[in-house]
Amino acid sequence: MLWSVLAAALAPGLALLAYFYWKDRYDAEPLPMVAKLFLTGVLIVLPAMILQRGLTLWLGESPFVFSFVISSGVEELLKFFVLYHMIFNHTEFDEPYDGIVYATAVSLGFATLENVLYSFLQPVSFGSLMIRALLPVPGHALFGVFMGYSMGRAKFSTGRQVRYHLGLALLLPVLWHGLYDYMMVSVPTGWIWVAVPFMFVLWFRGIRRVNRANAVSPFRLLKREEEINS
């Protein structure tokens, strides 16, 4: 039973990480680097919990403050901090889609440990694990897509556009994550009817960013030439 619960808690995050990794059409990132970012996402759960506890004692727990400051604000800021300082200027960050790969790795590392803690610190059922596999964990992945897409645009921009896209890399995940949390705490009954359409919107917008990032890869033409010559 213990191992089955652990596997159920780990599977969604690892499966989503593999999905976004394989969506890199032209120049796959080194697995050790992706694993490093994933594990870093795991490690920032503890400081996030400490900061969230302190802010809760200081600011209270109103739905708006909890959703946009204590929850999404703290978590997305830590993910952004890690991503910017570990990968933004790294030589492996050599195409726009790389931002999505590394941002989803950090986000899913965070979400996976969060899922494991949820599974072991309170009684869970198969149904609750399924709901988490379909809602919170993919939510973190898609917030990572928004962050990584904007960071990819910042990486290959110049002048003021760099700061503009870096700002969006933090602002957009905070807003989407905060909106998701606000819906969860503000709709005590029937929340599933709000959460499912919301997730469809997130997936639609996220996949559009995935396709756009791949479409502007500098390796796209090189791969096409290789296919023509082979």
UniProtKB/TrEMBL annotation:
Domain of life: Bacteria
Positions in coiled-coil regions: none
UniProt KW Hydrolase keyword: yes
Record Pfam families: PrsW-protease
Protein name according to UniProt: Protease PrsW
Compartments where found: Cell membrane
InterPro entries, per database record: Peptidase_PrsW_arch/bac (IPR023596), PrsW (IPR026898)
Family to which the UniProt record says this protein belongs: Belongs to the protease PrsW family.
Record function comment: Involved in the degradation of specific anti-sigma factors.
Topological type in the membrane: Multi-pass membrane protein
Keyword field: Cell membrane, Hydrolase, Membrane, Metalloprotease, Protease, Transmembrane, Transmembrane helix
Listed GO biological process terms: proteolysis
UniProt GO MF annotations: metallopeptidase activity
Residue ranges crossing the lipid bilayer per the database entry: 6-22, 34-52, 64-87, 99-121, 133-150, 185-204
One term under GO cellular component: plasma membrane
UniProt EC number: 3.4.-.-
